[in-house]
Amino acid sequence: MQVGILNLRRSLPCFILLLVCLVAPVAAQEILPLDQVQPGMKGTARTIFAGSQIEEFELEVLGVLRNLMGPGQHIILVRLLGEKPSYTGVVAGMSGSPVYIEGKLVGALSLRFGTFTREPIGGVTPIESMLRAAQQETPAVVEESAPPLRYPVPQEVAAATGVRAANPYLVPIETPLSFSGFHPQVIQRFAPELAQYGLLPVQGGGAAAGESRAPLEPGGAVAAALVTGDMNVAGTCTITHRVGDQLFACGHWILNLGSVQLPMASADIVTTVASDFNSFKISNIGEVIGSFTQDRTSAIVGRVGAAPPMIPVELTIQHRGQEFRTHYQIFQHPKISTLLLNLTLFNSIYNSLESGAEMTYRVRGRMVLRDHPDVVLDDMFSATDAFFPDAAFVVSSVASSFQQVFTNPFESPRIERIEVQVELLPDRLAASIENAWSDKSEVRPGETVLVKVVMQPYRGHRLVREVPVTIPAQAAKGDLRILVSDALMLNLITRNLLLGFGARGAVGPRVNSLDQLIALLNRERRNDRLYVTVFQRTPTLLVEDKILPSVPLSAINVLSQKSVATRPGSTMLFYESILNEASEPLGQVISGSYWLSVIVR
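Predicted structure:
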């Protein structure tokens, strides 16, 4: 017993010491201020070239370029030293690699010379600028069509570093955007659009659970996930600094969106590919481990923990009696979510196509919104002779509805999920309108006119369809026009009415709420129906979202004056009215139009 007590007394100090080590906070990383950085200083940087092992390489400070990226936006110019940097140059994915001098954190490698050179010279974002990014709240502004930013470098500075170019400049190191589950031709097709954000598309992969991951510490890899699930798209860069659960990475923006809720994911670096044009890292993307909240000029900042909300997409492809289901989520932001939906839908359909086969696409589905009606997806698209992927028409239709709802000017919608079913039908199911006539040239109000339409199916025999349409009882005496058309023509005419293209070409919104916008989208005509529409040259008054056909002049004056007094600009006059509309489902995509005339007695 005494021996046991003696052993306990001897081991107690060691136990207490171990406990203190476990609970004591890690000492804060000491920082070297920018004003103490001098040319000629030697330091080190940390990054991963392959696997999960963080490696160090040396560097030398060449100088400080003050206000290079704007007022107070200074850059430290450095030369990378060592065998690997000399071979690869500055690598896409190396953004955020922490730089240390005398053991103190100086900043993050973030820029490279934008010329055709593998000269290992780069720019470092000072850590002070990165720390300020966590405090910013005002959203950044970015033009979607803006080219990657270029920062001119004085000619004498470039010459001193050994870079020979007519107009030398620094650019942010590209962020390698890894794709998993995507066809290479799809990646190539969308690469120009992604390049506008400074993203470099590369074929990557998704890491399985339990595989090794890069450590979440300075020099380790982390990813900003744009798409997760059965398909993955994520931009990878390097962690610069960690304070508790807060991470600072990249040393520059990824999408330049300001305040965000961008999923943070773990990453594995497969390898680094050296290139005379642009060396880059290839990575596998793991699970979502937190959220980036700032996407700023000097850094992306986030926390390890809860994942942010995304938009779930459920896609079903039906082909030759089989179903292929895909489930994934896309990042929520007005500037890029539509592009991500386009990208993922196109990839799923493209992977299901048979080379050279002509297809017709039957699309059904819905967008489910919280506290609002569903947006109904129901249309049909056929193959064309254009040197253009036919699946793009399907994708464009779904993405257009999504964009109008997601970027509406009335409120921020909460899209709970998007459900899309695409049925691939063999052959080109399409027909064009060749001719049309009515069984009567003179009619009375309330009578029914039988319109006969001649259509030419694609590589088929002509067929005739009869569509009855009733002349409304309120039709005035005189000429009526009957339009026999496809959905495209009729949608164009009625969209002009609803969006307010008046007699003088003025434009004004005809909807004033998200519910009205959804109702308008759900009223869009479908490509697989033949439409017969009766027009009369009588005034249609547009009062906000209401369409009032054949309005008497006395009523027009009263309603117009009242509208001007309460809401100027909300009333417009269109000098033609739609009296009635009939349609016939045909099970194939209709194109063309034909006008008829009848007289009301």
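Summary: The two ends are 120 Å apart (CA to CA).
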